[in-house]
Write a structure and sequence with these properties.
- With 114 residues, the chain is an all-alpha fold.
- The chain has one domain.
- The protein is built from two helices and no strands.
- Keywords: Coiled coil.
């Protein structure tokens, strides 16, 4: 094998390993993006749970006041908080699904479970 052939083969190997490193960098960035979106979704779901619990607590207070003949408390703030939290969860779910869809389209081999 000539010196030129050896250099050509080394260049091919080098290019292949560079492509592989770049692919792994892309996959790593994709995984980090998915992790951020999953964490955002989890936070939004926690906020929804907290808002729903606050609304339920106010509803219980209203029942107690109603039974004792006192005026009821306004639930509009708690109701609005629940609505905002639900909207936030929906937005995060869309982001997660879109990111997963793009990841599966670009790297389908990573999503094959055996």
């Amino acid at each position: 094998m000539s010196h030129e052939e050896e250099r050509a083969r080394e260049k091919i190997r080098s290019t292949a390993s560079t492509r592989q490193r770049n692919r792994w960098k892309e996959i790593e960035q994709l995984a980090e993006g998915l992790e951020r979106r999953y964490n955002g979704l989890a936070s939004a779901m926690d906020e929804l749970t907290n808002a729903q619990e606050a609304l339920d607590k106010k509803k219980l207070e209203n029942w107690e006041k109603k039974l004792s003949g006192q005026p009821e408390v306004d639930l509009s703030k708690e109701t609005e908080d629940v609505k905002k939290a639900k909207d936030s969860v929906e937005e995060w779910e869309k982001l997660v699904h879109e990111t997963e869809r793009r990841a599966k389209a670009k790297y389908p081999d990573l999503f094959k479970f055996r």
